[in-house]
Amino acid sequence: MSLLKSACPSVPLNKVNQKETLPKSTAIDVKDRKRIERPSPSLQPWDVDETLTEIHRKGYYPRASRKDTAKHDKSDPVQGTARWPEVLRACVQGGASLALSAFGGALFYLQRGLVDDEILTMGIVKPYIPPATCGAASDSCAATEQLENLFTQEQRESSGLEAPAPRNENGNNVAFSSLERDQAEVIAMEAQIDHMALDGTTLANLEILSNAHSGKAAGSLWSKISFAKSPHGSRLLRAWLLRPLFRKVDIDRRADAVEELISGAPAAALAESRSALAKMGDVERLLSRVHSMGGSGGGAGQGDLEGGNRHPNDRAILYETKTYTKRKVGDFSKLLNGLRAAAVIPDLFEGVDIRSGQLSKIVRTSESGGYFPANLGEQLDWFFDNFDCKRAAQGDFEPTRGMDDAYDAACDDVERIKQELEDYKDEMCSDVLKPSHQAKGTWKYINVKEDSKDKYLIELPASIGIPDDFYVKGKRGSGAKQVNKYRTPVVEQLVQELEQALAVVTAGKARGMQLVFSKFDSMRATWAAAAAATAMLDALGALAEVASQPGFSRPIIRDCPPDGKPCTNIMQGRHPCVEVTHSGGDFVPNDLSLGGAPVSGEIDESRVLLLSGPNMGGKSTLLRQTCLITILAQIGCFVPADECCLTPVDRIFTRLGASDRILLGQSTFFVELAETAAALRGATRRSLVIMDEVSWMEAPFVLKTSQANVPW
After folding, report:
1. What is the per-residue pLDDT across 535-568, written as a single tens digit (0 to 9) for each?
2. Quick one: CA torsion of 668, 672, 675, 679, rounded to 10 degrees?
3. CA–CA separation, 533 vs 308, rounded Å?
4. Three-class SS of residue 641?
5. Which domains does the chain have, with CATH numbers?
6. Cα(first)–Cα(last) distance of the chain, in Å?
7. Beta strands in 129-240 (DSSP E)
8. Based on the number of CB atoms within 10 Å of its own CB, is 323 exposed (0-12), middle (13-18) or buried (19 or more)?
9. What pTM was estimated for this model as a whole?
């Protein structure tokens, strides 16, 4: 889930067509239908009160304690939110009404789709701040400021970075000069930036994820670094590519880990671990599936729904139970085997001297000061010992002792009742039935299977003398071979108890897998930590494979103080995606020096480079090449150059090619001017702007091409 911070005013309700109404629920169960349908069927956004009331009513998130629940005042929205997700709690405490209303709208449609319990009880609520507003001054809204801080922290954690140190740039009480004040503002502004911003136009123009010809990944920058072995590692690597780092310390930290994985003992351990990563599968998505299969444990039994059915199986009629069960067991088996494959990774790096702090954190266990869960294999052994995947897939799963007390008691009752039936048989044959020796040899219980009707009828020859409480339920044969089927009050009572016990056993078998899934989901933090550590190792391993290619070198990242000059200096650089020219020849490397880079022993402080040359001379290639090398450098990867030295870039603006947006009524010239205006408005001293065949204009840190009339 994401919370959107909008700079636009909320849409007035009178703009919504009040005549439109929400469809009525088609749920069969009256309670489910009442839960889904709203008191007012009018189509209108939820307000804050409705959202909070619904969250408390459904009990998606647990209370802080019984005492806190008892003191909960419905008029105070903050009460009872102590154990809610941090982002949602910050919105409630700070009064972020627009964010809560947006959350309520998402909650409404999740409820309509009957997936609200499965999704919300996972407790995953993350902040989202649009790039255009991230870092903007918003001191007037405490909730917005807190959301931005949470957004920054969450993004750093997802990128594998440690939490940022407290920023104490305390110059507010000092009388600054105009220059010092400007420098202080620059420091404060750049201190808020964690990642390079890449908009959709830049991603398309630079062919980051797909090529412009066919729209496929072949030939894109992503295709040149996509060497991850697991799906979740590939997703993390893709996220790194779309959000390159900005701070020098963060870039160097990741590059140190990549460099260490290239050679020596760490490289050997990585090679072995990558085979284990390839066996993991998509553990992140499988964890979500197991959460839904285990029921909504996070807030079940709270609010008005106490005792209600919250597991999806209890709210649906499954006509293909065997197929559904087989798929569930298959997913769970893949998850167990994937985590078992990951459990060997700390052992592979055991005894390896690792200097990189980031790499050490993800391959060392928590007992050794790392993030990887300790004793992961031992924790998985319980599930392998108590869950037979093959039998469960066939519908023959039986919970083991200690898993379900009601099931254990019912199994004991079944055994006890069967023994009492045998004892009753021995008693009647010894003392009551005549002749006793003939009764012992001919007494037979029939219909003893669990799904049989008229269980445990007694078959005896008609010649056996019986007491008055034996009454005939049927017979077969005739004459001397006639056999009667009897029922007695004692057997009838025992069979009745047996039926009840078997019903509990049957329900326990059906509930057994849910209990296993629920127990597994209760340890989701452990499994998620292993998934995060392996994803980061997989992504770093992919970058290490790129770095090990010939012609790649580690870039040098320089600081850029407020009084310093941004720079880019590339020696013998090559386009990462162009290995040969269109004519089949080798790619010709080239140099680039821009903005404070040493050239011929002097300092060239030029921030604008005007590039001229003939058609097909490689001008556009050099523009894109510079941007791609910058992106690779800032994701911690090695770059295709002999030498590379640069200061981090906060955003890349591109104006390339000629295209219109006819469906939006925007001509080619309009699009060119709009993209140019976006660069002029948004570029800072740390931005990189490339423009291809546009009238020259001054912009910070610009690479530009212009076609020149060259005599042939």
Report:
1. 999 999 999 999 999 989 999 999 888 777 888 9
2. 180
3. 37
4. coil
5. 2-158 (no CATH), 200-208+552-707 (3.40.50.300), 405-509 (1.10.1420.10)
6. 60
7. none
8. exposed
9. 0.73
